What we know:
Helix 2 (26-49) runs antiparallel to helix 3 (52-69), helix 2 crosses helix 4 and helix 7 packs across helix 9 (167-191). The chain has helices spanning 7-17, 26-49, 52-69, 76-98, 106-111, 127-136, 140-151, 156-163, 167-191. It is an all-alpha fold. The protein has 2 domains: 7-98, Rna Polymerase Sigma Factor, Chain: A, CATH 1.10.1740; 127-191, Arc Repressor Mutant, subunit A (Orthogonal Bundle).
Amino acid sequence: MLRRPSVQDDEADSSQQHSPPAASAGASGVRVLYEQHVAAIYRFIYAKVGNREEAEDLTSQVFLKALRGLDAGRDAQSIQSWLFQVARTTVADHWREFYRLRTDSLDDLLFGGWEAAAHEAPAETDAGARAQRILDRLPTRYRDVLTYRFLLNYSVRETAEQMRLSEANVKVLQFRALKRAAGEVAAMAGSG
């Protein structure tokens, strides 16, 4: 797949290597382009993926993409820069596809091998009951502000009107209530 040119090939092609490869005619120009840049592109990709087979596959993809978009008017330096840009996007596409995991449902996650940590408490089946237990452990004003803001979806202004407070006071109260609720969640997790 990755063929390094022999010394004889280098001597035979030395006159072509000084001119832009894309300017050469047809298949011989593509061959020169490949031979000049394959080793550098392969090393670049191998450094990014760390696997010889994947690096070879991605290198071949880079040159296939390059054939489709090759511009004969580019100079040698421009072609090299362009090939490395194609290599970067090819590697990015590879990793994007590699880490893509459908998370449409819990069944998909479990089928894909995801498991909850053994030390985690099992998730409650009724989130509403859990939220109510947390709210019950909070002072009345904290419970009220969280109920208005998150359960009833009131704005800060509407919450302030209902509680007869300023908007700034509601924001401070909400912050403190959330901090306290987080402490209650941690306490519940530690005791259960």
